[in-house]
Specification:
Layout: H1 2-6, H2 14-21, H3 26-42, H4 48-59, H5 67-77, H6 83-96
Helix pairs in contact: 3-5
Amino acid sequence: MFKHFQGQPTRTATAGVHLLIGSEPIESIIDRRRLFLFTNIFRLQGSAEYNILSRQITMASCDSHSLALVSRKALEKYNLPDVRFLLNILLKNQNGKP
């Protein structure tokens, strides 16, 4: 639809069209929200959600669809640090607060 409005051929790459209209691709929105959920759960130390997610990080297999694995793949896709590295930073920041 946006290609038609811009007068672009139908073969034009969708990412290029999104770039021209200034919108964010839905995939990056979903990845960002997953990572927000991931970090919010890890800020709830001692909760059931925290315990489940920390277990998923240590036990998840490569073909799993768990939040831990999906978050790990999103971090890799955007060349961000590993999950364990980020969690160590998050835990240090929480322990440093009064």
